[in-house]
Amino acid sequence: MISGITGQDGSYLTEMLLEKGYIVHGIIRRSSSFNTFRIDHIYNNPDYLNSRFFLHYGDLTDSSNLNRLVEKIQPTEIYNLGAQSHVQVSFEVPEYTAEVDGIGTLRFLDAIKETGVKTRFYQASTSELYGKVQEIPQTEKTPFYPRSPYAAAKLYSYWIVVNYREGYNVFASNGILFNHESERRGKTFVTRKITVAASKIILGQQDMLSLGNLDAKRDWGYAPEYVEGMWRILQADRPDDFVLATNETHSIREFVEETFMNLGEEIVWKGNGVDEKGFLKSSGKEVVRIDPRYFRPTEVDLLVGNPAKAKEILGWQPKTTFRDLVKIMVASDFEKAKKRSE
Ligand code: NAP
Ligand code: GDD
């Protein structure tokens, strides 16, 4: 059973579990327009629909719905990926974010406890928990310091997972996942925003890429590898908490440079602070500018995770490098822009 099945991770996880022979039940939210584009190819596969792949309407804000679904489906594994997952948006909708990303997890765990269903529970915890980092690199032992309503809500989820594990013997684990991206990443997250915009700029379909803080650093991995890590976390002998990360960090500025490099262009930066601009070296055309609208009230400056525990206990390690990740995303978005398919 997967919440957040229509998201980036949910779609990759579904593919992987179906390939392993699982029956997958996904929770989708009712929407006035289609929100299933990432899983339509699975839905439209006659081998899967109504035999091994099922969708149910639901919402993490609705306990009676979650109770009913857990009781009806009797899942052997639950992956709680559903969330208002955008950090900047969480400053605009803090209460809703707390409801979904914090209390939503409690609702799920309590449904397990009250129904007595024997299942394993995966919680999508996050490197945002480290926020104003207390140690470099971050490990499972690094103290948390959340810097957004999103991270504060996820902090509650992290601890309620630990509490239901210790208090009620629920097999519940936290995957503390550092940023992971892909060609399916939502377009408002910075990596995809950059690869989509740069592709369109090169093709003459867009003039400018507006960004916020160029100097924040992230530990970026490739999403399909991280969902495999989630699965490994639930196959472990006992429930526990694991960091999944690459142990490498790069700035947004580097991501921009690497993206344009893949498109055959070099970026030259001029100016400082909000007046800084990025130009194509070849033509002198201005293509990147700073828009303070994208600054956050509190920023997470640097994330870099040490996945040694996951390697030792789960045999998990990332494979795709930063350069390969950018290459994969640019190749996909350039093709889509050429075909004007998204
Ligand atoms: P995503 O693409 O934004 O997907 C989020 C999913 O949650 C979507 O399916 C969304 O449904 C669903 N959702 C939102 N609100 C919901 C609600 N009230 N009830 C039920 N479902 C709801 O996120 P992602 O990148 O796949 O991330 C998956 C999970 O991992 C999230 O919990 C995220 O916070 C966490 N995480 C992500 C990363 C990362 O780098 N990607 C790192 C660490 C942790 P709609 O399609 O209808 O909007
Ligand atoms: N979104 C966005 N848009 N971010 C920008 C922009 C912009 O125009 N310009 C600069 N940034 C900076 C942000 O300030 C932040 O420091 C960094 O780029 C990354 O932002 P996002 O891509 O939005 O991701 P995030 O790191 O805040 O959150 C993602 O990763 C978390 C794991 O660390 C999300 O997937 C979270 O759900 C996840 O928990």
Instruction: Name the quaternary structure.
Output: single chain
Widest beta sheet: strand line-up: 3-2-1-4-5-6-11
Radius of gyration equals: 20 Å
Largest beta-sheet details: 7 strands, parallel
The arrangement of helices and strands along the chain is EHEHEHEHHEHEEHEEEHEEHEEEHH
Contiguous uncertain segments of 5+ residues: none
Helix content: 40-55%
Number of helices: 11
- Mean pLDDT over all positions: 97
The separation of the N and C termini measures: 29 Å
| Beta-strand residue percentage | 15-25%
General shape: globular
Which ligands does the model contain, each kind named once? NADP nicotinamide-adenine-dinucleotide phosphate, guanosine-5'-diphosphate-alpha-D-mannose
| Number of E-type strands | 15
What structural class do the secondary elements suggest?
Answer: alpha/beta
Characterization of this structure:
Helix 1 crosses helix 8 and helix 7 packs parallel to helix 9 (252-262). This protein has a 7-stranded parallel sheet with strand order 3-2-1-4-5-6-11, with helices on both faces. A 4-stranded mixed sheet has the order 8-15-14-13. A two-stranded parallel ribbon has the order 7-10. It contains 11 helices and 15 strands. Helix 2 (40-43) links the parallel strand 2 (24-28) and strand 3 (53-57). It has 342 residues and is an alpha/beta fold. The mean pLDDT is 97. The structure holds NADP nicotinamide-adenine-dinucleotide phosphate and guanosine-5'-diphosphate-alpha-D-mannose (GDD). Residues 85, 87-88, 126-128, 178-179, 188-190, 193, 211-213, 216, 218, 252, 294, 296, 299-300, 303 line the site of guanosine-5'-diphosphate-alpha-D-mannose (GDD).
